[in-house]
Amino acid sequence: MPPISSITEPGAQMGTWHSSAFPRTHLLKEDEIEVIVSISDGLSTVSEKVRILVTDANDESPEFINTPYIVQVPENSPSGSSIFKIEAVDRDTGSGGSITYFLQNIHANKFTIDRHSGVLRIKSGVTLDYEKSRTHFVVAVAKDGGGKLRGDNKVFSATTTVTVNVEDVQDTPPMFIGTPYYGYVYEDTLAGSEVLTVVALDGDRGKPNSIHYCIVNGSEGSFEISNTTGAISVIKSPNQLKKEVYELRVQASEVSPEGDISAYAFATVTIRVVDLNNHPPTFHGESGPQNRFELTMYEHPPEGEILRGLKITVNDSDQGANAKFNLRLVGPGGIFRVVPQTVLNEAQVTIIVENSAAIDYEKYKVLTFKLLAIEVNTPEKFSSTADVAIRLLDTNDNVPKFSSDYYIARIPENSPGGSNVVAVTATDPDSGLWGEVKYSIYGTGADLFLIHPSTEDTDGKYSLAEVFITVLDVNDHSPEFNENIQEKTMIIGSPVKIEAIDQDAEEPNNIVDYSIMQADPANVFDIDQSTGEIKLKSYIRSLDIIHNITKNKDCIWSLVVQAKDRGSPSFSTTAVLKIDITEETLHKGPMAAFLMQTKDNPMKALGVLAGVMGIMVLITIMISTAMFWRNKRSNKIMPVRRIIKKRQTQQSRTVRMEWLKFKRPSNAAEKFVVEDDAKSLQNENSNNNVQAAPVPPAAPLPPPPPALAASGNTAVWRVPTVSGSLTPKFINKQLKKRGHNSAHNALVSELKMKFEKRNAAMGEPHI
User: Fold this and answer.
1) Beta-strand (E) ranges in 424-538?
2) SS3 category, 659
3) Which domains does the chain have, with CATH numbers?
4) How high is the pLDDT of residue 416?
């Protein structure tokens, strides 16, 4: 028996055996091979027969047989049923030759495959539908079990496509094409004319059956249909058609080759009878066609209210577009509106209030409109109109109105009761009792007047007008002096003034003119007609001239002064004025002027002095307190003030009173100016006789006293006199009799004593 060896197929790297008798590229296709092996050394040859066993490798792919795969499947095949079997082979042995099957896109497929047998089935719960999908393409995969190839584990597969054609079966009823169906029959259409054609097809498109047509109902004997073509015709004249619209129910049935009806379907056909446009719109009332409508109503109805008293209907006997028309009101705009605004065939006309304020009886007794209906989409544009007349009834909707918003009247203040002042007029445009007016007055001063009430507005509506009544001033007051006998002191060169008040309210009744009626002696005084200032004649400049005129050493004159107003008629009054004439003293300065002003009123002087002393005491306390606290902080005793004594010089006996001066005047006239109290210069009676007067200066604080030179002679105090006018109501006779010089000396002495006490308290040297 020859020796045995085993090898694998070429390229398997197992049991490779080399021999010149066995080419390496030879493909082994047998399970065992017998070969003769010879060995020679050049001299002799040895030969041996060898048997080789061949083992399989996975070097083959599966292959489908009997391809291509085309399957015909009826659409009514049940789900889960087998429809086809595919088969693939692999020439490898062992696991490399075993095959399993599966489908690609398993979730999108309607089919499944048995992985071992290759049987193709319809998925469970899935049915086929020829009308939805006639062909399905299924991709199947065959895969071997794998094996070694050149040392690596290899798996081979192959794919094929299975075409599944769905066969149609008679399971779908017929379907109408082009629904819905509409047809029109016109007035001039002839009987027997075709109106429209319906079309139906068998739902089973693979093997369709023929279709049979018939009208089930709705024809009412007016229409017919062809059994085979579906053409519908009118069999009556249009004027014989009783309806405007016909709804036909048409049936389409499938007829099998054997003549049996297998399925059917229905469709509705709408046929409209169209009339020619030969009728215009027409308005109708309750009793038939009507072209005028009337209504009576109250003015100012609520906006949005419907005029229910108007029963109006409008229609057009034509059909379709020929019966479509618009409605509108022609007349005063914005008062009413009409609905509907567009009508098809027929409608009830409604008129609604849009502007209540414009429906006014006082403006319109009758509102007239035209109701217009006009076709929209027809070339003829047929139209018609109807008159609408609305008679208005009055309501009390107006308030009385005066002829003017205000009235101005003037009446003399002394008019007797019952005098006519002014006539006011008010009107109310409402009719009847609503237009009657009642008058009444109220307001400031209304209790002084009466008004005739006339008639009354029944519902109490009212209007207001302002009446301005000006009371005219009448000259019914005469000027009045505050005293019938007055006493004045006149300094030569300065005037005195008198004043009379006239209680009348307006000029010229309250303007007073002054004059001197009587004087003894005469030709001594002049009086300003407007201001009442009295002064000496210009030639009288001293008391000596006065003494030459009269022997009266007291220099007291009595004048009769008249105050007369400028009214018509004019009134006047007189007063006796006693004037004491004095001469200006040689003393100058503020103190002298002050003493002259207060010689008739000593309490005023005392009050001023008390105020000055109070201020000085307050200043002293403040200075002392400040010095005390300063010394207390420094713990040192400091002198209050350094005293420097100067050599005294001889001075004149006239003591200088410069500390009484407020400023150095530029001339003698500016040393002191007498200014009356501002209040006394105002016109207390407001009679427009206001005289301009300078504003009084504020009282200055007294400066510190000067150091006066001591003299052996008695100091003579000189206080300058001042010009001014004093008008006291009560004159103290005793003060007057004491004389000018005595009062002056007493006041100066008292002032001197006060300042000496002050200087002693402050540690200053005495004067």
Assistant:
1) 426-427, 466-472, 480-481, 485-491, 496-497, 500-501, 512-520, 525-527, 533-536
2) helix
3) 63-167 (2.60.40.60), 175-274 (2.60.40.60), 282-393 (2.60.40.60), 480-584 (2.60.40.60)
4) 86
What is the length of the chain? Answer: 767
Residue 469 β-bridge partners: 409
CA distance 647 to 631: 32
Residue with tokens 């098809």: 344
Q: How far is residue 491's CA from residue 473's CA, in Å, rounded to a whole number?
A: 40
In what helix (H) or strand (E) does residue 330 lie, and over which residues does it extend? strand 324-330
- pLDDT-derived band at 289, boundaries 50, 70, 90: very high
Placement of tokens 């009050």 in the chain: 607
pLDDT at 419: 83
Which residue is associated with the tokens 């006779």? 733
Band of residue 42 on the pLDDT scale cut at 50, 70, 90: confident
Question: What pLDDT does 409 receive?
Answer: 85
Q: How many CB atoms lie within 10 A of CB 640?
A: 12
Residue 608, phi then psi, degrees to nearest 5: -65, -45
Residue 119, both tokens? 């049987």
Nearest to 526 by CA among 579, 478, 582: 579
Task: Name the amino acid, one letter, at 557.
Answer: W
The token pair at 757 is 């006490």
Query: Of 241, 235, 298, which Cα lies nearest the Cα of 274?
Result: 241
Q: Comparing 273-277, 585-589, 652-656, which segment has the lowest mean pLDDT?
A: 652-656
pLDDT in the model for residue 11: 41
Mind listing the pLDDT tens digit for each residue in 622-651? 999 988 888 776 655 455 444 444 455 444
Q: Is 576 helix (H, G, I), strand (E, B) or coil?
A: strand
> What are the C-alpha distances in Å from 620 to residues 505, 531, 572, 627?
55, 48, 59, 11
- Render pLDDT for 181-203 as a digit per residue (tens, 0 to 9): 999 998 888 999 999 999 998 87
Q: What is the mean pLDDT of residues 490-508?
A: 88
What's the rounded Cα separation, in Å, for the pair 403 and 461?
Answer: 17
In the predicted model, what is the mean pLDDT of the chain?
A: 77
- Is 347 a residue whose pLDDT tops 70? yes
Which residues, other chains included, contact 23 with Cβ-Cβ below 8 Å and sequence gap of 6+? none
Instruction: Report the Cα 609 to chain-centroid distance in Å.
Output: 71
What tokens appear for 285 in the block? 């009332």
Instruction: Locate 148 and state its tokens.
Output: 């070694």
The angle formed by the CA atoms of residues 220, 225 and 227, to the nearest 5 degrees, is 135
Predicted confidence at residue 3, as pLDDT, reads 55
CA dihedral sign, ordered 702, 706, 712, 717: negative
601-635 core/surface letters (b: 16 or more CB in 10 A; e: else): ebeebeeebeeebeebeeeeeeeeeeeeeeeeeee
